[in-house]
Design a protein that fits this description.
The chain has 403 residues and is an alpha/beta fold. It is 40% helix and 13% strand. It has 14 helices and 14 strands.
Length: 403
């Protein structure tokens, strides 16, 4: 006799799956079925982890000291290295006691909202946003409040719009520059305005700085904790080794926060995962404490790809792509392709999600639709892929759209 399925929690049922991982998974499934797909989905550098970092990890594997539990908040050596890195890159001092090492940057994001939010608290999320921000806010019982800024203003939020979104329930705001999905690098003025606004209204700032070293054309990341030092007591900085050092699979991230917040994060993590993998922590220590030469080489390669993909996208009728100044994403406006017959089957698409699905199925090009980032009418392409894949993928997109 059939039995009724037991229900899952409302909290998990109200959360959407990761759209970027969904696109990546479908593209990989098509590849496994023998279909040649060009994948611009996940933000994953196609470079190997630098060899000196790998060598440190290899030595750590045979060291029995790494076979035991270690401090939940991270290896002391790594926490010290992160603190020195903040001074080197951000320009101000923090202590190792303010650092909590997490299983990738995503866990640091998750824990931040778990620490700050009560049910019904609101978080202002400038839009377009990384797809997980809003879902992680929901998982903490909070309510994401989006504030949109489009390509016409370089995807940079306006403080007046942010203030208009504030209510008595506003608890935090997310800052992410260089930005995923747009590649925008917010100006120092915008960063200063947000910090002063947050100070005035006693609002937490969560600053995701994982793309900090990936900037172009002489543009540099403005660190909110350096621009307005007074904000540091209500600032949580998030980072990790995935993007800068081509280490996405190593799963090492961290948060830097006021010490009382870091202690709370360690308490939370003690009931979730305990310490991060020790081998990966040893590798991350070498990465964070080492030189940035390999990072500069990767950035130079990304720069060439950035220019190539923007030029190619702007050659497609109905597509407008601004030149990003950071990260390794482009975020073209494809609204000119909607609501008119396009593609080999002369279909009319009303949403970028439907268009992206058809582009994958028919054109064998995988991109993430703007709906995943709160921005319908756009597509995100990661150019952290091989040069020849960019050439081929853009050829396919143009051929498909103009067929």
């Amino acid at each position: 006799m059939a039995t009724e399925q037991l229900p899952l929690s409302d909290r998990i049922n109200n959360v959407s799956p990761s759209a970027t991982l969904a696109v990546d998974s479908k593209a990989k499934a098509m590849k496994a079925a023998g279909i040649d797909v060009v994948v611009f989905g996940a933000g994953e550098p196609n470079f190997p982890t630098p060899e000196p970092i790998v060598e440190v990890a290899a030595a750590a594997v045979v060291n029995p000291a790494n076979y035991k539990y270690t401090p939940t908040a991270g290896l002391p050596e790594l926490r010290e290295a992160v603190a020195k890195k903040v001074l080197r890159d951000s320009g101000f001092e923090v202590t190792p006691e303010q650092v909590v090492v997490t299983n990738g940057g995503k866990q640091a994001v998750y824990e931040s909202f778990q620490l700050l939010l009560n049910d019904g608290d609101e978080v202002i999320v400038p839009t377009p946003y990384w797809t997980s921000y809003t879902e992680v806010v929901k998982l903490a019982g909070g309510k994401p409040v989006t504030v949109f800024a489009g390509a016409d203003v370089n995807f940079e939020p306006n403080i007046a719009d942010i203030e208009a979104a504030r209510t008595e329930h506003t608890k935090a705001i997310v800052v992410t520059t260089p930005n995923n999905p747009t590649g925008a690098v917010w100006s120092e003025k915008t960063i200063r305005d947000i910090a002063n606004w947050a100070l005035e209204h006693n609002i937490w700032v969560i600053s995701d700085e994982i793309y900090e070293h990936l900037t172009y054309d002489g543009v540099h990341t403005s660190y909110i904790g350096a621009v307005v030092p007074e904000i540091r007591e209500q600032l949580i900085m998030l980072n990790g080794v995935a993007k800068t050092y081509a280490m996405p699979g190593w799963r090492v991230g961290w948060m830097v926060a006021p010490e009382r917040v870091a202690k709370a994060a360690s308490k939370l993590q003690g009931h979730m995962t305990s310490n991060v993998n020790n081998i990966a922590q040893r590798a991350a220590t070498a990465a964070v404490g080492g030189p940035l030469d390999a990072v500069a080489d990767m950035r130079d390669a990304f720069d060439v790809r950035r220019r190539a993909i923007v030029d190619s996208l702007n050659e497609i009728d109905g597509v407008y792509c601004p030149m990003p100044k950071g990260a390794f994403y482009v975020f073209p406006d494809i609204s000119g392709l909607l609501n008119r017959p396009i593609g080999p089957n002369k279909q009319t698409f009303t949403t970028s999600a439907d268009l992206a699905a058809a582009l994958l199925e028919e054109g064998h090009v995988a991109a993430v639709p703007g709906e995943a980032f709160g921005a319908p009418g756009y597509l995100r392409f990661s150019y952290a892929v091989a040069d020849d894949q960019i050439t081929e993928g853009m050829r396919r997109f143009k051929e498909w759209a103009e067929a």
